[in-house]
Amino acid sequence: ADPLSLNLARWAIAVLVLLPFTGAGLWRQWPLLRRHLGWVAALGFTGLALPHVCIYTALQTTTALNALLL
To answer: CA torsion, points 48, 49, 52, 57, in degrees to nearest 10?
Structure first.
């Protein structure tokens, strides 16, 4: 499997494991979260998804030495 699929599976498992501990708090804060959902999505994309995509793409197109330096 490609690295992006494995990373997606890793995050999906992490969400499922952490949801029982955080679900009640998220449910209580849902009105606030819904109001700022655009910001939350934008920050999640630029701070979590985009860097992983860039790193995994770079690692597929570089040498092992350059990857080690990264």
So the answer is: -160
